[in-house]
Amino acid sequence: MQAQQVRDGFVELYGTEPEGVWAAPGRVNLIGEHTDYNDGFVMPFALPHTAVAAVARRTDGVLRLHSADVEGGVVELRLDDLAPDSDRNWTAYPSGVVWALCEAGHPVTGADIHLASTVPAGAGLSSSAALEVVVALALNDLYELGLKGWQLARLCQRAENVYVGAPVGIMDQTASACCEEGHALFLDTRDLSQKQIPFDLAAEGMRLLVVDTQVKHSHSEGEYGKRRAGCERGAALLGVDALRDVPYAELDAALERLGDDEEAVRLVRHIVTEDERVEKVVALLESGDTRAIGPVLIAGHASLRDDFRISCPELDLVVDTALASGALGARMTGGGFGGSAIVLAEAADVDTITKAVEEAFAAADFTAPRVFEAVPSAGARRLS
Ligand code: ADP
Ligand code: MG
User: Fold this and answer.
1) What's the Cα-to-Cα distance from 74 to each of 119, 188, 194, 367, 379, rounded to whole Å?
2) For the whole prediction, is pTM greater than 0.90?
């Protein structure tokens, strides 16, 4: 449906058929928050929501871009003119990918691209990575570049870091490129080694809800940079390359060494315990003890709220209300200061929990949240 619409849109815009149509999903992160820029572990899974792109090659060094979701016409750029920090619009994401491919020496000579996305933008569900990865995969196929999913993810991250200018880690792009249906992706962000962990909640009578608070507090980007810098400072104080290198068993000794550096203590404690939580969730899922991940999610939220200090009243209200209404676990997900929370619940409790959260938001005078079920879905793929 979405694929046909995007194909038709391409024909209408450019007057020719595209050479193919591709999709790349958004993601939610089950556990492992802010660990990806500390060389640590993450565990995202792909959403059914995707960015879909119809694409055709060009040979004249021109890139034409259009999004069905943005007002305005086709944007035309020359590959020779693509330069980091030159574009503050949505087009920076796809053109950044083309720039990264060219910069890496891949023989890309232009493209016509029309896309549309069902990934909510700015909700912490990685609409930006979906956009990047769908373009990277399409060009990889059309230009027969032979790049693997993790290599596309690296190029997309480079596009977002250098071209767009957002200092994001590697999780979002890898999740979009590499996730598999019915699985969560256990990813070591240091070397990008990965393991697909079966995660079929429906078969066990459970559901995972995403609650998009629909808020994004304006200081979120600055705070992200501060947390990153704080983690780097913590690693330097402890004499390690990255906080990933502090073993959980040595956490107390490490905190002792940080003494009364209260900020470093909090940040280090979150990252080291969060890596441990990811490993715990993997072990529980692999042993079939799925319900037991609930308390680990709850502990993860407390750590993000109290130690990393990136929650906000809306996210805390989702978590507190869901838990008070019988959820097995709940936590904020994504960068923080708004965006989305996830709730793990028995299937029979979903309606009660959803209603309770909606009522709590109304009572607090918050914008109504958007609640939907997240089914672990396929990663980036060619549709036609
Ligand atoms: P997130 O990745 O959490 O959704 P970001 O701020 O990283 O949030 O990325 C959101 C940005 O991605 C939007 O502001 C817009 O520039 C771009 N974007 C997302 N979806 C689309 C779309 N369908 N069409 C055009 N641009 C989009
Ligand atoms: Mg993003």
Assistant:
1) 21, 39, 38, 33, 28
2) yes
Which of 90, 135, 210 maximizes ligand 1 atoms within 8 Å of its Cβ, making it the mutation to test the pocket? 90
Question: Could you tell which of 131, 174, 337 is best to mutate to test the pocket of ligand 1, judged by most ligand atoms within 8 Å of the CB?
Answer: 131
Distance 272 CA to ligand 1 centre (A): 30
pLDDT of residue 274: 98
Looking at domain 200-373, its CATH class is alpha beta
Tell me, what DSSP letter sits at residue 377?
Answer: B
Distance 127 CA to ligand 1 centre (A): 5
Domains of the chain, residue spans = 2-197, 200-373
Summarize pLDDT for 294-336 with one digit per residue, the tens: 999 999 999 999 999 999 999 999 999 999 999 999 999 999 9
Digit-coded pLDDT (tens) for 19-52: 999 999 999 999 999 999 999 999 999 999 999 9
- 75: region left, alpha or beta (phi > 0 left; psi from -120 to 50 alpha): beta
CATH class of 2-197: alpha beta
Q: Which residues are catalytic?
A: 172
DSSP 8-state assignment for residue 262: H
